[in-house]
Structure formats: C-alpha cells, structure tokens
Amino acid sequence: MAEFIIKDEDLTGIKGKVVIVTGSSSGIGLATVNLLLSLGASVVGGDINPPSATSSTESPEFLFVQTNVTSWADLSNLFKQAKERHQRIDYVFANAGIGPRADYLSLATDENGELKEPSHEVLDINLKSVVNTASLAVHYLKQQSEGGSIVLMGSSTGLQPLRAPDYSTAKHGVLGFGRGYARLVEAAGLPIRINTLMPCWTTTSILPNMDGLMKGISHEAQTGLVVARCTAHLMVDASKHGNVIYIADGKYKEIEKAVLWPAYESIKGEGNPSDDDVLKRIFELAQ
C-alpha cells in the first residue's frame, strides 16, 4: 500500500480558503472545523445543532447554518449562505453521518399490527446526503475557473463485511459514488478534485458513550484530528484526485491506485476492457 505522511507545512494552502463542512458540530466534523480555522480558512458549517461554544467556533471566520442534511432545501441553503457571505466556495467536506439504526432481523409493527418497513435513516444521512452535498458542490465549484476540491466521508467498513448492514451499505455506497464521480468529473474536463476517506475506528459520537465502549473492549480509537488532517491535505494537494485513503492508527494509505484498481485489473483479466471503457464507447456511439 502507498503509505504517506502529512506534515504541518503540507496544510498551509488552506489559509484564505472558504470551506463547507457538513456534520460540523461534533466528532470528525468539529475536529476538521477547528483545524481549518486554525490554519486560516473561513468555514461554513452545517448541522442539526450548533457546536458547543469554543474559541474556534466563536471566530468571525466561522458561520453556522442549521442544516438537516436529509433536506435538499436545507443543503441548498447552506451553499447559498456560504456563497453570499464569501462570494466563493473552494472546498467541501461531505461528512455528516450517524451510527447504525435499522433492525433487519426483527421487524417492528405499527398500531394496526402491520409490519413496518426497516429504517432508512442511515442510508438517507450517510449516503444520500453525501451524494446531494457533492452534487451541490460541483454545481458551485464548476462556476470558478480554478474549480475546487470535494472530500467524501466513507469508512473502512465500506471495505469489509460488517454486522451493521445499513451502515455498511451506506459506506460501500459512498466508496462507489466517490470512485465513479471522480471519473465522471474528470471525463467532463471539470477542474474539480474528488477524494474519499475510509477511516477505521475514530473517536466520534457515532455510537453512544463511544469512549466508554472503546475502553470496555480495550480498543484505542484514533482521534478526530487524525482524520481532519487528511481532509485538509486532500483539499489542498492538487495531485490528489480519485484517491481513496484508508486511515488507521494515525497512518494514511492510498488504496485506490495501490489496491482496489490493481485488484480489479487482475480479476477482469489481461486484454479485457474495463466496464468504464465500454461505457465510454457506448456514450461516444450515442453522440
């Protein structure tokens, strides 16, 4: 795997940039907000609830916009507020997420005794809102000649079987969306970079009493700052596009070009075109 390090000097390009962060009031989102502000960025954060007051979030360079990421109107308003305040948007972090919710083994019943559909709350927040946030980001970023950068919050759980299928499905979906969307904007010639994070266990509020749970099983989760630093790095490093970054134990490994694509190449066999190559030819024929 292509492991890399992130030095403080690698993040200086954040200064003066305008960044939107969803899920900005806790966990990785809040850690990212605090880091970006410390590096001199202007940050517009969207979340259901405002963050607790800190020296960082009380900065005039931070704007909180109450946002339910499952609402297209709320997400649209978040971007409008950012553009109106700063006249531009440079980077977007589609980060909002929640922990597992659905019970696929024991279906609940309604007041009439009829079986209820399993909850899709995790899919709406962890996947659909990421897709919508990224789509809005491209709409705004492509209006600027220099474009910008989008970072998507996936998870290492999108790389493996997980006994929380709703969460796993959402994160597998983010991985697929990020890989495909990066290829799409590249094919369209847009000056926009899209990268996907795949962190393993990190101190967040995804699970209740997470610190206590980690201590109870003698497992040490990495801090949100570890992921925040990678987020900032992907925003400013112009060489990073279409990357998938696995983050574990405070270490960063690029796995799209080092693992995922080479694995597919070996599976499809030498001389066979990729599905994307075939799709490209279909599109060209249809023109």
What does this structure look like?
By secondary structure, this protein is an alpha/beta fold. The protein has a single domain (2-254), classed as NAD(P)-binding Rossmann-like Domain (Rossmann fold), CATH 3.40.50. It is 40% helix and 16% strand. The protein has helices spanning 27-38, 72-86, 121-141, 165-187, 210-216, 224-236, 256-268, 275-286; strands spanning 2-4, 18-22, 42-47, 62-66, 91-94, 148-153, 192-199, 244-248, 251-254. The protein has a nine-stranded mixed beta sheet with strand order 1-9-8-7-6-5-2-3-4, sandwiched between helices. Helix 1 crosses helix 6. The termini are far apart. The model has no long low-confidence stretch (mean pLDDT 93). Belongs to the short-chain dehydrogenases/reductases (SDR) family. This is 15-hydroxyprostaglandin dehydrogenase. One of its GO terms (molecular function) is oxidoreductase activity. Keywords: Oxidoreductase.
Q: What are the salient characteristics of this protein?
A:
single chain, 287 residues, alpha/beta, Rossmann fold, nine-stranded mixed beta sheet, 8 helices, 9 strands, 16% strand
